[in-house]
Amino acid sequence: MEQAALILIKPDGLKKSLTGNILTRLSETKLEIVAAKMARVSRQLAEEHYKHLKDKPFFPEIIRYIQGELHNRHKVLALIYWGEDAIAKCRELAGATNPEEAEPTSIRGSYGRITTAGVYENVIHVSSNIEEAEREIKLWFQPGEVIVNLYPTKEVVKKEVKAKEWT
Ligand code: IDP
Ligand code: MG
């Protein structure tokens, strides 16, 4: 089934200059990239993204991690991969959540680590199922930033919205 997956190259992936390597690995899937952008991660976005982990003891640390506080890189590269079995294919290449348990040749197995504070720094986020992918994609991207119509949209007229234009 054709589906979409949200991929984030996390701040450690950016700081370690792994973007090229990770995208090369993901290109093995032959999936299509249908959206990509650098994104700042507000506390609100981070907490919403990881809301299913709110009660975990490591929650405050992963919020700091995804916001770039641990690496002094306050951004992530967000992409949407689209195609046949996109989620399973990307998760397979990413490897297990715990980088020590991940297949050594997987992205997380190759580049991840566990910090002394116990955070799994695993360089990449991949949506875990179709429902989560839809929730996450709607959180990270506006419809106009995606070059295919993934989910139903509606037209709205926006009045007096402050926006920046090139001078
Ligand atoms: P996933 O990223 O493989 O889908 P999730 O359970 O959604 O795994 O966890 C989100 C992120 O939180 C992980 O990618 C990892 O960075 C961190 N994390 C998950 N479980 C632990 C843990 O037990 N200790 C430390 N960090 C964790
Ligand atoms: Mg997850």
Q: Could you walk me through the main structural features you see in this protein, from its secondary elements to its overall organization?
A:
By secondary structure, this protein is of the alpha+beta class. The protein has one domain: Nucleoside diphosphate kinase-like domain (Alpha-Beta Plaits). It has seven helices and six strands. It has a four-stranded antiparallel sheet with strand order 2-3-1-6, sandwiched between helices. Strands 4-5 form a two-stranded antiparallel sheet. β4 (113-114) and β5 form a beta hairpin. 33% of the residues are buried. The mean pLDDT is 97.
The CATH homologous superfamily is called Nucleoside diphosphate kinase-like domain
Distance between the termini: 45 Å
Helix and strand content put the structural class at alpha+beta
* Proportion in β-strands: 15-25%
Q: How helix-rich are the residues, as a percent range? A: 25-40%
What would CATH call the class? Alpha Beta
SSE order: EHHEHHEHHEEEH
Bound ligands: inosine-5'-diphosphate, magnesium ion
Sheet having the most strands? 4 strands, antiparallel
Under CATH, the topology can be stated as: Alpha-Beta Plaits
General form = globular
Mean pLDDT: 97
User: What would you report as the Rg, rounded to the nearest angstrom?
Assistant: 16 Å
Helix segment count?
Answer: 7
Q: What low-confidence regions span 5 or more consecutive residues with pLDDT below 50?
A: none
